[in-house]
Amino acid sequence: MDIWNQTTFVEFILAGLTNDHVLQLLFFVVFLVIYMFSFLSNFGMILLITTARHLHTPMYFFLGHLSFVDMCYSSTITPKMLSDFLAEIKFISLWACSIQMSLFVMFATSECLLVTGMAYDRYVAICRPLSYHNVMDRSMCWRLVTAAYCSSCLASIVHTVTIFSFPLCGSNKINHFYCDIPPLLKLVCPNTSFRKSLVFFLSLSMGIFSLLIILTSYAFIMSTILGIKSAEGRSKAISTCGSHLTVVSLFYFTVFCIYFRPSVGLDLETIDKFFSIFYTVASPLLNPIIYSFKNSEVKRALVNFFTIGKNMKFIVESLF
């Protein structure tokens, strides 16, 4: 007899957010609206950055890729979650589960590394303004973005192989609304601490590495800002970092609450689901809003975009 009581699953059952049918319908409507606004706002941000020439700067170059990543990892989770709200039993195949997890890890890691690149961009802009255009040229921006995507692909492959290379046994019920790393680790056979430690180390090392770069960048930034004598100059320097700091704070606060919180306390699985909802559904909507709010350059691009749209409409109506 197999000492691990192995069972090779071909599909899993997701627990979802709730079993209450009324709440499921309510959640379906609410999250559908949020997802639509999130997708459209991120797509709109990409469109603005692409069409507005005054937004062709390194900061908005990174922001365009951040919006693309937000669209992708939200679309990796939300459509399946929405369909499950209308299903009696929430099935997901083994292959679909592994693909969902690998894509989510890839896009989440990409976001982590992109906000790190944005921190470096702010450091060069404030601490080395005279050499900014030479350092943050188009080649450097593409190298940073390519490194972010390649590293996230590698992290995704390592996590997926680590979890799915061995059989999954025990119950086939995943106590979550998507295939996330912690609930899947509970199904791995054998359920060794080494495998959990490896996944934890890989995730922690990537997160800590990125966070250290961000904190170091902002330590130099704050030192430079404090040395600016003009109050207007200090205010302008701080305003260029405010949106990025808000996005970074929300990102790392949610990630650490999900993956690096103590394993004792209240109903941790419910808490994990709550923060996962914010991380996968709300955060992709908030990021473009944060970068648009009180951002004169984005507002100017919006005004120009709609003005061009009205002019084109007037020309078309005049012709026909």
Explain the layout of strands and helices.
Blueprint: E1 11-14, H1 21-51, H2 58-85, E2 91-93, H3 94-127, H4 132-135, H5 138-164, E3 173-174, H6 181-185, H7 193-226, H8 231-259, H9 268-292, H10 296-319
Helix pairs in contact: 1-2, 1-9, 2-3, 2-9, 3-5, 3-7, 3-8, 5-7, 7-8, 8-9
Describe this structure in words.
- The protein is mainly α.
- The chain has one domain: Rhodopsin 7-helix transmembrane proteins (Rhopdopsin 7-helix transmembrane proteins).
- The chain has 10 helices and 3 strands, in the order E-H-H-E-H-H-H-E-H-H-H-H-H.
- It has a 3-stranded mixed sheet.
Note the main attributes of this structure.
Rhopdopsin 7-helix transmembrane proteins; 3-stranded mixed beta sheet; about 325 residues; globular; about 5% strand; mainly alpha
Give the topology string: H per helix, E per strand.
Answer: EHHEHHHEHHHHH
CATH architecture field: Up-down Bundle
Unreliable sequence segments: 1-6, 309-320
Overall number of domains: 1
**How would you classify the helix and strand content by structural class?**
mainly alpha
CATH class: Mainly Alpha
Question: Quick gist of this model?
Answer:
The chain is an all-alpha fold. 75% of the residues lie in helices and 3% in strands. The protein has helices spanning 21-51, 58-85, 94-127, 132-135, 138-164, 181-185, 193-226, 231-259, 268-292, 296-319; strands at residues 11-14, 91-93, 173-174.
